[in-house]
Design a protein that fits this description.
The chain has 364 residues and is an alpha/beta fold. The protein has 13 helices and eight strands. It has an eight-stranded mixed beta sheet with strand order 1-2-4-3-5-6-7-8, sandwiched between helices. Strand 7, helix 9 and strand 8 form a beta-alpha-beta unit. Helix 3 packs across helix 10 and helix 5 crosses helix 7. The radius of gyration is 19 Å and the shape is globular. The N terminus and C terminus are likely disordered.
Length: 364
């Protein structure tokens, strides 16, 4: 495989979704219902299983933006706190391969209900359109979604979406441009790390200086580039890495498991970084999908993850009363009991790090 196809985990990210059913998005959809109907059904089922903030708290705005300079559509979904009386922080959300702006609603709606806007950006070169068309051509479509060109286009999508949002007077007035972070899952985690300061040697920087923190969920390795420290050592923003014991991408030649997630965490150059490892689980339980990783654990981890992301971000922006130390105590039963993982998740300087980040002892 050429280096132009392995900038960001390449075919491992795509094929693992289909062949192992552990990827970033749902399996190929049937042709008897529309995408909107499938999304509505999934959202309804998710709301039945996990309490979701309603429209009385959260305003949802869909927009179909187009980056004319790149001739590329950039659909977005923006979750806004409905009753905010002052400009609020913003989180950019990057989906995994085969995802869409509708995904990760359990996270976006929760953040908005707690005073943080969430802009979910859809990457049209690697979104849910991959599941449409001739099923025998799916592998070809997935390979096309993991080229270097698409890996570069995804961070550019985030930059364009943020530019467009802040150029809209009505929307920009509701956003605090000094408090912007990025969250990504799987392929989206690599995208998030690149806009947050990671850089592949010899490749252009894709960093967006407006960001103040990054959350990487299930980040795959940068295949083909050796030691990840050469890429992630440049990243200096506060960083939260989230994974699980069975957070596996399974594909011959490109297998990736929790040890790879830990390696990326260790390689991250930020002075202020945190790692959380859930027990058991799966790669796709961090999406809106239900059941994967175990029915009960799936819901519990979703609830814990959205609390965790909020607590981490509030700590960076100095407007939270909760903290990761307290979060770990409340969710101890969900965390990995593997001491080798916990040694990374709770380094010796955790208390001092928490103090520097303004983390208290009460629940978020």
């Amino acid at each position: 495989m050429s280096r132009t196809r392995i900038l960001i985990s390449a075919a491992a990210l795509g094929l693992s979704v289909t062949l192992a059913s552990v990827g970033c998005a749902s399996r190929a959809a049937d042709t008897t219902t529309s995408d909107a109907e499938r999304q509505a059904t999934r959202q309804a089922r998710l709301a039945e299983a996990l309490p979701m903030p309603g429209d009385e708290l959260v305003q949802t705005v869909n927009a179909d933006w187009v980056d004319t300079a790149r001739d590329r559509p950039v659909p977005v979904r923006l979750y806004l706190p409905r009753e905010a009386k002052a400009p609020v922080p913003l989180v950019l959300v990057s989906h995994g391969i085969g995802g869409s702006r509708q995904g990760y609603s359990y996270l976006g709606r929760y953040l908005a209900a707690h005073g943080v806007a969430a802009l979910h950006v859809q990457h049209v070169g690697s979104d849910n359109r991959l599941w449409r068309g001739n099923p025998f051509e799916l592998v070809t479509r997935l390979n096309g979604a993991t080229t270097e060109a698409e890996a570069i286009a995804r961070p550019q999508d985030l930059r364009f979406a943020l530019d467009t949002l802040l150029a809209d007077p009505a929307l920009a007035a509701r956003i605090d441009s000094a408090r912007i972070a990025v969250v990504g899952h799987s392929y989206g985690a690599n995208t998030a790390l690149l806009v947050a300061g990671a850089q592949v040697p010899g490749k252009p920087s894709l960093t967006d200086a407006r960001l103040s923190a990054v959350v990487a969920i299930s980040a795959p390795p940068f295949h083909g580039y050796g030691d990840p420290e050469a890429i992630l050592g440049r990243l200096q923003l506060p960083a939260l890495h989230i994974t699980a014991e069975d957070d596996d991408i399974r594909i011959p030649g490109y297998g990736s498991d929790v040890k790879d997630r830990l390696a990326l965490y260790r390689a991250t150059g930020s002075e202020h970084k945190q790692l959380v490892v859930f027990r058991d689980g799966s790669h796709s339980m961090f999406t809106d999908r239900l059941g994967t990783g175990g029915a009960d654990l799936n819901i519990a981890v979703k609830a814990a993850t959205r609390e965790l992301v909020l607590a981490f971000l509030q700590a960076q922006w100095g407007d939270g009363v909760g903290g990761l130390d307290d979060w770990r105590e409340r969710h101890a039963s969900l965390l990995s009991p593997d001491q080798t993982l916990q040694d990374d998740a709770a380094p010796a300087n955790l208390a001092s790090t928490s103090s520097r980040l303004g983390m208290g002892a009460t629940a978020p």
